[in-house]
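Justification of resources, computational component.

The compute hours requested in this renewal are based largely on the per-chain cost of generating structure records like the one below. Each record pairs the submitted sequence with a full structure-token output. That output is archived, and it is also reused by downstream analysis tasks.
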Amino acid sequence: MRVISYNLRKHKASGELVDLARDFEIDALCLQECDTADLPETIGGLHLADATKGNRLGLAIYYRKDRFTAYDTRTFALKKSLHDRVLAPAHERLIGTHVVDKETEHDVVIASFHAAPLTASNSLRRNQIHAAHAELLSMGSGLRTLMVGDFNYPFFTRYLTEQMKDAGYDLSLSDRRTYTRYKVFKGHFDFATSQGLEIDNVETLPRGASDHLPILVSAAYGEDAAGGGPPSPAAD
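The structure output for this chain reads:
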């Protein structure tokens, strides 16, 4: 399963999406900072599962219909930072889609996540990440989960990795930094957390019109989130 995550920088990089979908033969596309009122129903061979509604610059997920059947898509509000409350309210910072692979019948939740900006504390972002995982669990217990996006967490990622491990999730950084616009803020902003999947590779793709570089996550089906056994049945 090949998934690209891309923060479009206020929709400025939206013109690159068709080429990304085609050139990297992806199965899903997770977006952040996209103009949800200006999203097409399809991008190449990908179909729009849904987008957030609470804020204009929001999140969206596209998936390949010839590979997956989508059963449920939900958006979630997470704990707000001071930035959200005062400057630019972001009501929904998470969107998740429950899909079933038509060939293998594996159930997977694919999610796009956007954490609070660097004006907030790492503690608040960790709270948002843990809350996001809990919300995705509400879509089905024991489902394999891949959450990608802009985590805004360039510093102290080793501690975050330990926190994720204790919670039963793997944290996967990309091979190169994903944000280099400002010298002081260089680092891995965009990465993935997963459960029940084997992450083969996370590749940072070439820079486009955004201040974030897109990442390409390659994942294989591992044991389910409940600790093994057959894949969970598809929802009705």
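The chain has a mean pLDDT of 89. The helical segments are 17-23, 82-86, 122-137, 157-166.
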